[in-house]
Amino acid sequence: MKQSPGNTMTAPIRRIRFVWVALFFCFWTLVIVGRLFWMQVVQHKEYVERAHRQQEHTSEVAARRGVLYDRNLRELAMTVTVDSVFAVPSELGDRANTAHLLAEIVHSDANENFTSQQQILARMNNSRNFAWVARRVDTETAKRVKELNLKGIYFWKEFKRFYPNNDLAAQVLGYVGTDDEGLGGLEHKYDVELRGEPGHVTTALDAKRHALGSQCVDGCLGTDGVLASQGTEPQPGDNLVLSIDANIQFIAERALDAQVAKMKAAHGTVVVQDPHTGQILALAVSPRFNPNDSKHIQAGSLQNLAVSDVYEPGSTFKLVTYAAAIDGAGVEPTDMVDCQGGAMTMYGRTLHDDKADHFGVVTVQYALEHSSDVGAAKMALKLGNDKFYHYMKDFGFGERTGIELPSETRGLLQPPKRWSGTSILSMAIGQEVGVTPVQLVTMVSTIANGGVYMPPHILLDDTDAKKGGPQLQPMAFHPENQLPQQLPDGAHRVIKELTAAKMRAMMQGIVVEGTGSLARLNGYSSAGKTGTAEKIDPVTKTYSHTKLVASFAGFAPVSNPAISVAVVIDTPTVGTGYGGTTSAPVFADVAQQVLEYLGVPHDQPLTTKKQALTPKDIAEDGPADSGADLNAMFAEVNNLPKDDPLRMRANGDAPATEDKSDAQPQQAQVQNAPPPPAVTMTQRSGVMAMLPQKVLAAFRAHGGTSSTMPDDTAANTPIAAPKIEPVAQPRANGSIVVDAGTRVSVPSFSGIGLRTVVERAAAAGLKVDPLGSGLARDQVPAAGTMVPSGTEIVVRFGR
Predict the structure, then answer these.
(1) Which of 157, 274, 281, 750 yields a CA-CA distance of 20 to 30 A from 638?
(2) Got the DSSP string for 86-132?
(3) The whole model's pTM is what?
């Protein structure tokens, strides 16, 4: 039987096999599509990132760090572009020889290991693609490396922090590390703001991971000859404007450095402040460091002692005590206080004044001027513990001031509940309380500006509105005589304005008549307070009599304060170590120069160089000086002619001494008369004078019988001189009479202070050239001498 044709055609086809083959291809297609979907869609981002890592190299580009300006927009810290050297080890031939050649150039400091030959070679052996050789090298070093023309050595542009004034305000500015991280001062405090936002540079790589040349975005930093394909622009950091004036800062640092070196002290601090705004004009610390050479900075010099060093202020703290007593206890400067001979006992503790001081009942002003501990303690007792503590807190002690500097301490001030029975005595004189120099100068500024506490600042108030922009404008300091209309946060009244005025007058007395005589200025009035604090001996745990902290805090001019200055010198080893002799001269030096620099009008008469009272003059014109020095000085300051009778009398050219052992007066000796000592306030003996023959003849014609006048101190009537030019007449008490038209009698200044001497002399139409401090001991010419109006009287003061 024959098969049909249809059956013959389909017989070889196996339908089941076809189905399986079709299913297989469908499944294979689905797998491929699924895998592609997984790779291209689900894991697209991951594979793109892997491709970028294999084909490209992304580097971070540091942003340019912000500039630190002074108030006049002088750069204190800025950023410059320098070369850093790196190697691609896979391209190097003899690595050891290359490391040796490079180290010969870049390894200039034996104490630095990073650029040594061994370290360079080790980094080359540890990496195939990148190894640092030296970072941020100077221009000369980069030039020498380029001249080697070594294969595989490249240069990378980096930013380097640069301080154009080297160590100026070093503790304020701080410094940055190798990775551009702020490590001190404002660089650390405002590191985030100054660093800005870094950018990124992406460089294409070939199969061997070698960089390919391409185009870089504007402003990107990269390697020499290797350009980036794409990147993001770095955003520069913010610029900050400080309240510091670089010129005032330099003045303060120079004066401080000189005194620290002279006194061989451990360190010192000077803070200059605007009393009406609280702005810091200068903050000097000695010794300092050079932030441009951060590799050799000593750890001890990094500390900003103005805000982090706590010390017992000593007698400068008496300003708080007296201000609080006047403001809160109704004390007046003219009130009397019994200093009890310089010692008082309370709860078994005896408080002593200085060993040379044994004051009795004196005025409150006198007690402050002469820094009586007993007087200060009695002022504090009038207030009581709680009230005294309240005033101390209001003056800013025991709290951080909020100044824009890192590591500020709050100081030390215990609440009354933790005081002992005699703590109030200690705190009244600046013990059992710890302060910083910034707190001290702010307290003085509170008194200077009329009694309002103004928080200190070292950044200008409007910095935030201007930083980073081209609209920055210089803000030169011009002294104001009033507080701002809108007080800043933290400002508050501490004492009444009348109290502040009384305190300013008392503080001026400290400089004029008290312990701060070396703080006097030429052409400006000044006020302040000295302080000498004993440091705790770590061995005996008691106060040391040899390790002292000398301080002075004051302001000038008195009537319209332009600046406040605090000077603290730690552990002076030369001289007395007292604040009046160690720190007060620094105040005078700084204040004088700053006021002249600011153009502050003079409120006192200017004196010549010969007339100016200097620390050297005071040191040399002590009580042991001969009277002949006073006589010579009197003749010099008054420009007396050689034949002037006053000069002859002062120089001892023609005097004769009276021998009281003889019954009859002796005739004056004409020749070879030895110069006598200066006439002191205790000497009442008669004095003989040698006169020209025509003067002597005229004298006798008017009734004179001898060149020696009777020793009659009761009859103190000047003898009229004959009308002969020049005419001089001796008197029994050592004075002489000169006919010079308008003549005045020299008052007696015996045993009175400088202020009273100046007032009495002014009332008589005379001037005073003072020497020393304390009470008047000697004067030339003697009391009762008739001299022309305007004559300058030389007066020596002593204790």
Answers:
(1) 750
(2) EE-GGG-S-HHHHHHHHHHHH---TT--TTSHHHHHHHHHH-SS-EE
(3) 0.69
